[in-house]
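Students often ask why inverse folding is considered easier than folding. One informal answer: many sequences map to the same fold, so there is more than one right answer. In these notes we will look at a single instance of the problem. The structure comes first.
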């Protein structure tokens, strides 16, 4: 028999097949391939996919190409966790603790209005309340003297623990639902603009020498907003109306409650909710931002008009 020399081959005379190796680890043989790019991958490089396995690069590329989940109003899905609602509640509680500490007295907790359930004023509430002018006849404090920060700080201050608990309970119930529907940023914008609107109404329509604090300006904005949002989503609002009516009855009948603040927050909250809920899908974010900015400018314009009337 004649002996032949040359390259080893298979039964057909061709070159012997080579075992595939992982494209990231050339020293590792594997017969598994990425279902997306078809490159060989070893067990260390395998990433579970809906079908088979994918390589790390394809997984990363897929994550970049997937659009994040959005709510019906363009907000982020993170709102379902209620982070903004929880943060607002924590901030209000922290400010209440600081307010009690500033007073160094139990009267900051209770002993005031509503049969002794409400607390009294503290150095912190005196500093941050919505107050147009103080003291008479030559004022040196108040919004009209340039302390515009009061229009914001007042929505985080409360007269006593009962006042705080009532508002925080309402914020917990309303806030989580609205934050999940709107997303964190849109919900925060709604809360702050509604609260500011209520405080501006206090500045416009209340006595220049009376002080007002409380998150209820923003809370009433949330009442209006949840009605608007639920209607926009086509959901039943019959359970919301009685609660809103009851709160309005309390507003007009219980002494010491700021009617202007509650109604101002209600109106501005409704307007902001309409902007968020009925923005056109095309350029929705730009429309919502512009609507919020217009409301903010309008409120600041009213503050300027009131200040000119008080100081002119």
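Output (designed amino acids):
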């Amino acid at each position: 028999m004649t002996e032949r020399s040359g390259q080893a081959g298979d039964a057909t005379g061709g070159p012997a097949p080579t075992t595939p190796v992982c494209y990231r680890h050339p020293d590792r043989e594997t017969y598994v391939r990425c279902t997306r790019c078809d490159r060989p991958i070893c067990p260390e490089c395998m990433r579970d996919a809906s079908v088979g396995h994918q390589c790390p690069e394809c997984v990363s590329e897929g994550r970049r190409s997937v659009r994040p989940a959005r709510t019906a109003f363009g907000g982020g899905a993170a709102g379902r966790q209620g982070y903004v609602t929880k943060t607002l509640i924590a901030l209000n509680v922290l400010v209440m603790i600081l307010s009690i500490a500033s007073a160094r007295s139990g009267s900051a907790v209770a002993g005031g209005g509503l049969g002794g359930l409400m607390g009294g004023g503290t150095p912190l509430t005196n500093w941050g309340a919505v107050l147009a002018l103080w003291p008479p006849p030559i004022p040196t404090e108040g919004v009209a003297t340039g302390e515009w920060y009061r229009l914001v700080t007042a929505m985080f201050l409360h007269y006593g623990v009962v006042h705080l608990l009532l508002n925080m309970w309402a914020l917990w119930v309303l806030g989580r639902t609205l934050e999940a529907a709107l997303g964190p940023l849109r919900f925060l914008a709604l809360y702050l603009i509604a609260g500011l609107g209520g405080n501006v109404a206090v500045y416009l329509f209340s006595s220049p020498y009376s002080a007002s604090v409380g998150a209820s300006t923003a809370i009433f904005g949330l009442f209006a907003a949840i009605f608007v949002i639920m209607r926009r989503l086509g959901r039943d609002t019959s359970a919301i109306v009685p609660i809103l009516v009851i709160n309005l009855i309390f507003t007009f009948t219980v002494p010491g409650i700021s009617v202007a603040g509650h109604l101002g927050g209600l109106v501005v909250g409704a307007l902001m909710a309409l902007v968020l809920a009925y923005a056109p899908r095309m350029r929705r974010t730009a429309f919502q931002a512009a609507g919020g900015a217009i409301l903010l400018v309008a409120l600041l314009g009213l503050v300027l008009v009131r200040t000119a009337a008080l100081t002119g």
